[in-house]
Amino acid sequence: MSKIFRVALCVFTLYLTGCSAINVEKKYRSNSYDNRIQWIVLHYTSADFEDSLHLLTNTAVSSHYLISEQPVKVYQLVDESNRAWHAGDSSWRGRTWLNATSIGIELVHPGYTEQAGERIWHDWSTEQIDSLIVLLHDILYRYQLPIESVIGHSDIAPQRKVDPGPKFPWSRLAQEGMIRWPLTTDIDFYEPIFLVELPDALWFQEQLAALGYAIHQSAEFDEQTQRVISVLQMKYRPSDFSGTADAETAAILQSLTEQQKQAQEK
Ligand SMILES: [Zn+2]
To answer: What's the gap in Å between 55 CA and the centre of ligand 1?
Structure first.
C-alpha cells in the first residue's frame, strides 16, 4: 500500500467515524478538578480603539475581551478556552504567569497623560464600567468564581504595571460583591491606634503578601515595597497613592486581611 493511499484511507476513516480515531470511555468520572479559570484580570489599553484593536489582534499581546469607550461595545478576541497573552510576568497568591489561569479584559482608556512632568489621570465613563460589570457577572457566574477573583494588572505585576490605575472605580466592584472593601468601622478603630505607632515594614510586607501581592520580605520600606503599597493605595485610597506607609493604609490592610481570615475560617 503506498504512503499516499494509506494517508487517504486514514483521512477517509476519520471522516466516516466522525473524526474520532479512538473510542474514549467516559463512564468513570472524577470529582477532583477545578476550573482552569481562577481570576479575571483588568487592564486599560493606553490607546484609542483603533490602536488598541491593532495591538491586540496583530502583535504578540492579546486579551479575551476588549471593551470600547465611545460607543461602548464588548468584543471577544480570544476564546475563553484558550490562553490570551495579557498578564506577562505576573504573580498572585503564590501563583505565577497568570495567563494560564485567567481571563483578560482590556478596556479602551488612555490611562494618564503627562503634563509638565505630572501624570494627569483620566476619568472612566459610567457606561463603559456598566458594561464591564455585566460581563464580569456573566464570567463569575459561569465559572462560579468566589469574591476577590477580579484583580488588576497592577495587583499581579506591581513592580512594572499601574493599570487599571487610581481612577478605576474599584468601589463599584465592591458594591457588586466582586471584591472586599475596607470597613469604615475598622478604619475608625485602627487608624488612631496606628497613628500612635505605625507598624514596621515587615508588618506591611506580611499583610500585603497575605492579600496576594508578590513582595520580598526585606523588613525595609524599600522601593519594591513602596510600589506595592502604591498599587494598594490606588485601589482602596486613591486620594494619595504615593507609596508611603501611613496609618490609614495600615488600617485598610488590617481590615482587608481580617475579612479574608474570617472568610477562610468559615
Ligand atoms: Zn495591563
So the answer is: 12
What is the Cα–Cα distance from 242 to 194, expressed in whole angstroms? 18
Compute, in angstroms, the gap from residue 106 CA to the centroid of ligand 1: 7
| Residues forming a β-bridge with 105 | 42, 65
Q: CA angle 168-165-182, nearest 5°?
A: 60
Alpha-carbon distance of 175 to 167, in angstroms, equals 16
41 within 8 A of 152, measured Cβ to Cβ = yes
The pairing of beta strand 95-96 with beta strand 150-152: unpaired
Contact between residue 40 and residue 150 where contact means Cβ atoms under 8 Å apart = yes
Instruction: Classify the C-alpha dihedral 92-35-76-125 as positive or negative.
Output: negative
- The residues assigned a catalytic role are 106
Of 105, 185, 97, 162, the residue nearest 137 (C-alpha): 105
Distance CA(203)–CA(232), nearest Å, equals: 15
Sheet order of strands, 74-76 included: 74-76, 65-67, 102-107, 39-44, 150-152
How confident is the model over 59-100, as pLDDT tens digits? Answer: 999 999 999 998 999 999 999 999 999 999 999 999 999 999
Q: Which domains does the chain have, with CATH numbers?
A: 39-175 (3.40.80.10), 184-256 (1.10.101.10)
pLDDT score at 33: 85
How many A from CA of 157 to the centre of ligand 1? 9
Backbone dihedral angles phi then psi of residue 153, each to the nearest 5 degrees: -60, -35
